[in-house]
Write a sequence for this structure.
């Protein structure tokens, strides 16, 4: 007999997820994770870029697992963690407006923003960027990777890599609107030089405080937004001298405000998270 699993559909700038409260129900967590590709199918399932499991943590307020639409597990997701934070608060899992979430990428601290009693957005302390090649991870000699040439399909790109707990390869281009992300994104994602694959951001610099980004997400393909990717984009922009330490990163789904704090080396991401609908899905 199939088991109905309650879920809430949410999105952060169009990057959409099914959130499942695993705090009070004795679900088989690995069964839920295995069901993610079927649930995320946009024709035969609910549709989503991933499934987020809201779990208890022995050391923090909550624990998050995120399963991509292809069934792989992500270490971290910026848009997903904002959805997680709003879900936890609005569904009564916590009365606190600032709390800690344990993720495979480390402990993340979201702070809810309000206007007239309603949640309007979330500012997330995303922690420090990791820049050493081995931390991305990326094969090759020790040191950071800044504008390193990588060739795929006969085209050479200047790549800057950043880990936000998950790997990112950032490429600056002259014009983003018509850039063939779907062609080059998967080729770069799968390069053997990235042993755990990589997210790929293609970025046009409008001004030092305004960057336009499109993303090919590891495990999900083209999505409308990527929070960790926006953070990695700002870091890459600063490292290559084209961006300020605070900027708006404009994604197809909308803008994120990103700051790389010089005092503590942490990145702060601010943006919305919206509940769309709730229902049950069969396991």
């Amino acid at each position: 007999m199939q088991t109905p699993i309650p879920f809430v559909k949410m999105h952060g700038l169009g990057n959409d997820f099914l959130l499942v409260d695993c705090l009070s129900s004795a679900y088989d967590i690995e069964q839920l994770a295995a069901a993610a590709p079927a649930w995320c199918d946009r024709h035969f399932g609910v549709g989503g870029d991933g499934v987020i499991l809201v779990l208890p943590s022995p050391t923090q307020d909550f624990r998050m697992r995120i399963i991509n639409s292809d069934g792989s597990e992500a270490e971290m997701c910026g848009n997903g963690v904002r959805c997680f934070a709003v879900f936890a608060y609005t569904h009564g899992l916590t009365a606190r407006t600032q709390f800690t979430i344990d993720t495979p990428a480390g402990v993340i601290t979201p702070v809810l923003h309000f206007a007239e009693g309603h949640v309007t957005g979330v500012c997330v302390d995303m922690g420090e960027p990791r820049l050493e090649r081995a931390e991305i991870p990326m094969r090759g000699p020790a040191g950071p990777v800044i504008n390193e040439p990588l060739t795929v399909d006969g085209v050479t790109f200047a790549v800057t890599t950043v880990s936000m707990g998950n790997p990112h390869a950032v490429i600056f281009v002259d014009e983003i609107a018509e850039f063939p992300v779907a062609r080059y994104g998967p080729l770069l994602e799968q390069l053997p030089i990235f042993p755990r694959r990589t997210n790929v951001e293609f970025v046009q610099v409008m001004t030092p405080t305004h960057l336009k980004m499109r993303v090919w997400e590891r495990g999900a393909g083209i999505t409308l937004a990527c929070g960790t990717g926006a953070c990695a984009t700002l870091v890459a922009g600063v490292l290559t001298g084209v961006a300020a330490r605070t900027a708006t990163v404009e994604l197809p789904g909308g803008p994120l405000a990103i700051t790389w704090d010089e005092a503590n080396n942490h990145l702060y991401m601010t943006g919305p998270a919206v509940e769309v609908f709730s229902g049950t899905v069969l396991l």
Summary: The chain is about 15% helix and 45% strand. The chain has a mean pLDDT of 97. The two ends are 9 Å apart (CA to CA). The helical segments are 29-40, 78-90, 181-189, 227-239.
